[in-house]
């Protein structure tokens, strides 16, 4: 059985803002020595260090490359591994930044000793490990690669509303000239991350022959524009102020403005579906959608099912009028030319109109309110928006939303706090969308699945689930005048809550499931697996010693980039001579108990693998 660890890896910047460690390698080594258990519970500061030459004498038992989203899957196939503690290292060849010192060498860092909390499935052991490298360690790693960072938030001064889409330009107040360090664009929460190198502030008009910057770091000042208009204009004197001189490799700089030019509501505030950016090219990290609606088309080509988080930011009020703002999402479904569903091709006829999301919304944690309880202590309470908080047209109005909070004195007492700009902190989640309620208008093509007696058959087109493709809109209005202030749209996304149609059998077990196969030289696999968004499937035959037959001896199949017609496979059905399906030579197999395993996983984001099993004795 394989061991698999899944999770996400991040580096921490200012305000606990994280960036995915895209492209870095997570390496797992079998932990040895008497202190393995002690190290597994030790603090980061006691375990994190750069790996010295010769410190890891053996090869890692597993290696995973971190995806653009920060996710990773670490699979341990080492037959000698027994689920014990692991030493986890991070191998850094190129940090996930646009530039670094070209002479910087690759390095490896010991992150922690982990004793995974394994959960057994039918075929594997699974564990989850999420980790964000603390700020001081992540900054140290960046410094080793010559990377300097300025990061922070740009907000309004009065109510600290984030300003997305602002362009931040940083400069070094040098004695000969002001060196531009770089630019960055704020995201939906007002955060920005700007990367530069020492060569950007140590140069002079005579560089590269004379570099006369005498201090370690630059003297930083910035200029900020929104919509091409300046909203923050600092000068060289700001770079000479205490706290701005000779800054370190990771400098945190928050700024606010009372000169917001243009309406921030004209900047798209709906940023992501789950971790996937809906705006390619706007400077946000993460993946995007292709024209058909697949997320990260060059990678997982994901579709979505269940509850889907729509992330972004909508200010409580309009900064120009002071009126409350309200927002909603709308959905429309693509259809096929002529109206007849076609499982071989996605629908191409765009929806004529979009319908507001109302009952399809589920409880969404949109933020926190801060208040003082009955004991005079500062408290916070979650602000959760449910379908009941949407009006008849699907709009959410957060400004003034009543929230029942605990007062604690007397015990059990409560009070109502209304959301306002002075007490609200958002979570960057706009709405949790229940896609099951959206796709449920289409009854399952094959309810109950395929009976085992029909294993090996290929589903006819009328029993194959087609691709369900949708368009999702985002709309912001003035809650007083009902005037539309902002719209946005994801032209195409795919929702899929259909079940995988899978079944498995052996010709030799069709009439008697307990039939001993002693002396058999050949068995005949009967399998069917079908789904419009299958990632892969495989059949293996195991005994207590492990796999004895596996691909390519046994069937398998996998999605490849752009191959959107891949649905799975079928062996061929039972026949009158009981020789249907796929023959497998078992003449060399020892007398033992065996399991035939059909496993699969879909491209539904966050999906876990499933499997079927048939047992026989040989």
Q: What is the topology?
A:
Blueprint: E1 2-12, E2 18-20, E3 25-30, H1 36-40, H2 44-47, E4 49-50, E5 62-65, E6 71-76, E7 86-92, E8 107-114, E9 119-120, E10 124-128, E11 131-133, H3 135-144, E12 147-156, E13 167-173, E14 178-185, E15 191-197, H4 199-202, E16 220-226, E17 229-233, H5 236-239, E18 250-252, E19 255-257, E20 270-273, E21 276-277, E22 307-312, E23 325-333, E24 355-356, E25 361-362, E26 364-372, E27 378-385, E28 402-406, E29 414-418, E30 424-426, E31 429-434, H6 435-439, E32 469-478, E33 484-494, E34 501-506, E35 522-530, E36 534-543, E37 546-549, E38 556-558, E39 568-570, E40 582-585, E41 593-602, E42 610-617
Parallel strand pairs: 1-10, 1-11, 12-18, 12-19
Antiparallel strand pairs: 1-2, 1-6, 3-5, 3-7, 4-8, 7-8, 9-10, 12-15, 13-14, 13-16, 16-17, 20-21, 20-22, 22-31, 23-24, 23-32, 25-31, 26-27, 26-30, 28-29, 32-33, 34-35, 35-39, 35-40, 36-37, 36-38, 36-41, 41-42
Would you kindly provide a written description of the structure presented here, covering whatever features stand out?
With 618 residues, the chain is mainly beta. Helix content is 5%, strand content 40%. The chain is built from 6 helices and 42 strands. Strands 1, 2, 6, 9, 10 and 11 form a 6-stranded mixed β-sheet that branches. A 5-stranded antiparallel β-sheet has the order 4-8-7-3-5. It has a 5-stranded antiparallel β-sheet with strand order 21-20-22-31-25. The longest helix has 10 residues, at 135-144. The model is unreliable at 36-42, 204-215, 261-268 and 281-286 (pLDDT under 50).
């Amino acid at each position: 059985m394989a061991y698999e660890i899944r999770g996400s890896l991040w580096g921490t910047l200012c305000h606990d803002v994280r960036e995915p460690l895209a492209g870095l390698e997570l390496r797992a080594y079998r932990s040895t020595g008497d202190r393995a258990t002690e190290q597994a519970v030790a603090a980061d500061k006691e375990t994190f260090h750069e790996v010295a030459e010769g410190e890891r004498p053996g090869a890692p038992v597993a290696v995973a490359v971190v995806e653009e989203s920060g996710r990773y899957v670490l699979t341990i196939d080492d037959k000698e591994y027994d689920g014990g503690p692991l030493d986890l290292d991070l191998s850094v060849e190129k940090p996930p930044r646009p530039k670094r010192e070209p002479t910087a060498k690759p390095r490896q860092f010991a992150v922690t000793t982990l004793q995974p909390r394994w959960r057994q499935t039918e075929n594997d052991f699974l564990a989850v490990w999420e980790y964000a490298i603390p700020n001081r360690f992540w900054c140290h790693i960046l410094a080793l690669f010559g990377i300097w960072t300025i990061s922070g938030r740009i907000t309004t001064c009065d109510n600290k509303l984030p300003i997305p889409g602002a362009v931040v330009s940083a400069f070094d107040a040098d004695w000969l000239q002001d060196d531009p360090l770089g630019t960055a664009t704020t995201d939906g929460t007002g955060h920005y991350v700007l990367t530069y190198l020492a060569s950007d502030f140590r140069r002079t008009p005579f560089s590269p022959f004379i570099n006369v910057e005498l201090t370690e770091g630059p003297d930083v000042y910035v200029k900020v524009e929104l919509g091409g208009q300046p909203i923050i204009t600092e000068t060289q004197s700001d770079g000479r102020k205490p706290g701005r001189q000779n800054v370190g490799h990771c400098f945190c700089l928050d700024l606010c403005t009372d000169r917001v030019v243009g309406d921030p509501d004209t900047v798209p505030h709906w940023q992501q579906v789950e971790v996937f950016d809906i705006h390619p090219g706007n400077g946000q990290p993460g993946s995007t959608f292709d024209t058909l609606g697949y997320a990260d088309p060059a990678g997982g080509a994901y579709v979505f099912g269940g509850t889907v988080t729509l992330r972004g930011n909508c200010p409580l009020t309009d900064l120009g009028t002071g009126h409350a703002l309200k927002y909603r999402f709308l959905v429309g479904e693509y259809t096929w030319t002529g109206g007849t569903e076609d499982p071989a091709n996605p629908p191409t006829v765009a929806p004529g109109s979009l319908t507001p999301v109302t009952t399809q919304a589920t409880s969404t944690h949109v933020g926190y309110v801060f208040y003082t309880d009955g004991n005079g202590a500062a408290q916070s309470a979650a602000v959760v928006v449910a379908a009941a908080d949407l009006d008849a047209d699907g709009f959410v109005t957060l400004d003034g939303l009543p929230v029942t909070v605990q007062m604690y004195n007397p015990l059990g007492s409560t009070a109502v706090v209304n959301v306002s700009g002075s007490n609200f902190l958002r979570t960057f989640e706009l709405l949790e969308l229940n896609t099951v309620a959206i796709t449920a208008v289409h009854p399952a093509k094959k309810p109950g699945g395929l009976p085992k007696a029909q294993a090996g058959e290929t589903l006819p087109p009328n029993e194959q689930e087609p691709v369900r493709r949708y368009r999702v809109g985002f709309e912001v209005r003035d809650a007083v005048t009902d005037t539309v202030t902002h719209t946005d749209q994801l032209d195409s996304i795919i929702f899929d809550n259909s079940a995988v149609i899978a079944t498995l059998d052996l010709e030799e077990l069709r009439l008697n499931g307990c039939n001993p196969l002693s002396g058999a030289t050949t068995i005949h696999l009967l399998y069917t697996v079908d789904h419009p968004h299958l990632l892969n499937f495989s059949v293996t035959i195991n005994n207590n010693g492990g796999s004895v037959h596996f691909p390519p001896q046994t069937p398998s199949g996998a999605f490849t980039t752009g191959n959107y017609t891949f649905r799975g496979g079928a062996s061929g059905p039972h026949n009158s001579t009981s020789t249907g399906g796929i023959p497998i030579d078992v003449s060399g197999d020892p007398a033992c108990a065996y399991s035939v395993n059909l496993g699969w996983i879909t491209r539904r984001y966050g999906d876990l693998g499933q499997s079927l099993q048939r047992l026989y004795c040989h």
